[in-house]
């Protein structure tokens, strides 16, 4: 597959082994993915280089302090977006959600860049994404050809920003992840060069809006399709607002952590949809996995969907049922929506926070009319309706 002998790994035990054993496996992404996301991004680097860059970039999007810092920005933008969509009429719900989540990740990484830059980048990312899991056919008309062109445009924009920021260092205070990347030094005093910074930006800005945008859409659709689930989730959000201290404006992280049922709705959406269908690893040596030998140099494709649809772990796995999570904690390797091991998605907490804040406001004041529920689904690069979920958002209360 993708030009390499490959083993598709489908059981929870085997998947866990492949994604957690860094002594035996390294990233094994197809050349198309590495060329598009960047050889100096996380899809191309491993060992000490990966550890340092991950530590550097994960801290600003994880933990109580970091997430609290972004809450108001996320919430303000969610409120504005919902009000705007309710006035427009028919929208491509997924397209609008991706613009919203892209605005949020742009704020974290490139806080001072303007609206025009943001819109231009988001458009290019849409094209880039369609080539990430495509065959590397660099001929006009193919997804990979278009994606390479999009990457060139993204790199040009980021290069201009990096050059400008380097000229400003020391003259202005640190504001965002871009500044942190420019100033970073490892224990030997080595700094990141432009290629490394740009590849990290290409990767994070892509991953940082795609997953949260898609999962928010699917969670909203599942809520609309299951009135009993919607009623319970809505009641929980109304109770949070009702018991809020007088004078408090906006959500707090403490309130988000009280959203126990909504958290189950999100986890069930992540399980059913399995946003990232597969990750690629390569055996660094001959390695035994569950009684089978994966030879050195062979690719191991970790197939998350089979793990999430295993009937031995999840009764009636194709049924959307948030209540299955009541008092249930899956064993290690049985729930992998954000991967696992040293390459667990660094933005998983941020993604769940964004989805929770959106659903909090949607459930209280809005409803969605899905115009074409029978729209065929596309599965690459990610599961979505072919029409990007044509819908109308309506306000249902004052």
UniProtKB/TrEMBL annotation:
Q: Name one Pfam family in it.
A: p450
Note the InterPro entries from the entry: Cyt_P450, Cyt_P450_CS, Cyt_P450_E_grp-I, Cyt_P450_sf
GO molecular-function terms, A-Z: ent-kaurenoic acid monooxygenase activity; heme binding; iron ion binding
Indicate which residues the UniProt annotation says bind heme.
345
Q: Which Gene3D superfamilies match?
A: Cytochrome P450
Membrane topology value: Single-pass membrane protein
- Cofactor field: heme
- SUPFAM superfamilies per the record? Cytochrome P450
As for subcellular location, the record says:
Membrane
Q: Does the keyword Protease apply?
A: no
EC annotation from Swiss-Prot or TrEMBL: 1.14.13.79
Q: Name one GO biological process term.
A: brassinosteroid homeostasis
Q: Single GO cellular component annotation? A: endoplasmic reticulum
State where it is primarily located: membrane
For this chain, the family text in UniProt reads: Belongs to the cytochrome P450 family.
Tell me what this protein is called.
Answer: Cytochrome P450 CYP4/CYP19/CYP26 subfamily
